[in-house]
Amino acid sequence: MITAAAGQNVALVFEAGAVLSSPTVTIAPTVGGAAVVGPTSDGLGVDDTTYTYVWQVDAGQAQAAYTATLAGTAGSDPVEVEIGVFVTALPVYANLADIKLDATITDSDRDARLASKIAAASRSIDKTTGRRFWLDPQPTPRIINPLRRVAVDEDGAHLLVPDIGDVDALVVEIGRPGAWQDITAQVEAEPTDRLEQLEPVTSLLRLGASWPTGGGWRVRVTTRWGWPAIPDGVVEATGILSLRLFKRKDSPEGVLGSSEWGVVRLSRTDPDVYELIKSYILPGLA
Q1: Which of 68, 97, 129 marks a domain boundary?
Q2: pLDDT in tens, 127-155
Q3: CB atoms within 10 A of CB 108
């Protein structure tokens, strides 16, 4: 099973093992319910015996397990290939297949439950760090009150902003709703090398001028918010926390039993998870 976030696209690759006649794709809830896609051949890519379909997951798609089925015929024989997809409300930071490998889980019976724990662990890391580690698919505007968000030094005035993961379509305006002035050409995203390191821009330097504060002034920033890539530490922490939540059913009172190391009490905060994510926690949240 793979994971997908509502509102984003996920590529489904089917290995049919044969060239199929009249291939179609159907996507439906794994447990009951009508199909949400298909049967359809529209958008189905073919490369010899490999078939690819990009599911454009609706933003309002319910969080649940779904089964994507490729169906067709090889000669006179019917062929079906299935892929499990767990849809989450928001992007997740770990891959189900990798976590199953770490936990030596080989069956698919518990995929949906484990996928839900990955989603819960991802949101827990968001809350703990005060930020989120995915990138908006499209630029969106945010209105920022610059009051108490401007730092001034010898370089100029720096406006502290939420994480920006892509500045290609950056637009910066000052003013008030209904009366905005575009000052993008006067702004430099910084730290200037942060995106090259797959980390976000966190401030905007206004060249040769100050940011207006007070008097109802606002700054409207249109960009792709978030992180350009999920940090390795966040991926690893999500995996550890996901398995901890998954095994929680074996420790309802906070005690976990093992034939190898006896009975131990689970700590309230996993020190390994904290060590992996502590450098990403926003100041004031630690």
Answers
A1: 129
A2: 999 999 988 878 999 999 999 999 999 88
A3: 12
